[in-house]
Give the backbone structure.
Amino acid sequence: MRRSTRLATISLVAASAMPALPAGASSHTAPRPTTVTIYRPATYSVVLADQLLAQLGYLPVRFVARPAPRPVRPPTTTTSTSTTTTTTTTVPTNTTTSIAPARSSTPTRRVLVRQLHTVPGHYVWRFADLPAAFRSQWHLGTLNVILESALMRFQSDHGLTTTGAMDTTTWQVLQHARLSHAVDRQPYNMVYVSENLPETLHLYVNGRLVFTTLVNTGISVSQTQLGTHPVYLRYLTQTMKGTNPNGTHYSDAGIPWVSYFYGGDALHGFLRSSYGWPQSLGCVEMPFAQAHVLWPYTPIGTPVTVVN
């Protein structure tokens, strides 16, 4: 994520046209004012990005705004006043004077400026059962992989290039999404791979463990990357090519349900006689059937944590 300078772009979000006069209405009726809402982008900050992504449901934490303090009312003073009543009789006349308010044929224009900004509050984890190795990587106001994953998911949902880094377009679209309450309706998924024997993969959906399978990770000379990384590329099926540790080359056709999360390391199906111990060249291999179950839950931006 890159820190950008203040955005100078101002765009019109909405404008209401002057309605037509109803049948029988006088042409002297005052026109209704035209309301123009101007969206003025705020200066980018990681803290504000955290707040917006949390409010839209792209982070595994929820932002709780601090309630505004109640205004203090001044004390009520009661004053007794003596009143003298005077009755005056006026003789009516036959002249009636009516003063009509001045009317303008030009509609007035009300301008509403909206700008997002950070507000006081705190964050709480939405899901209590996510692995500690994953939870420990999120810190408010810092560039971290959980924030990167959230940005990639947001960019993917809004048709942007999924870099996981902030740019001018992403910043503007993110603020528009918050103003229009475009909350993420998809579940929050994360994948946890343990290299403790037997090696296993665990899928969490909205904080609940919903799927587990035996897997194979990388051998000692081509180990699977440890840590947390977001899924950045996916294939239904792919021909995988590369070089073996002994210098020979391989070309494996028809590898199904592929989700890359770090360089050439990917979650995918692969036929082996057994599973649960290191056998791959860095990928996380599993039986075809299990890879088929997992693949729909690993869209772009899904965090994958590998621990030993």
Notes: Residues 145-157 form the longest helix (13 residues). Residues 1-30, 81-102 have pLDDT under 50 and may be disordered. The radius of gyration is 31 Å. The helical segments are 46-55, 132-135, 145-157, 168-179, 288-294.
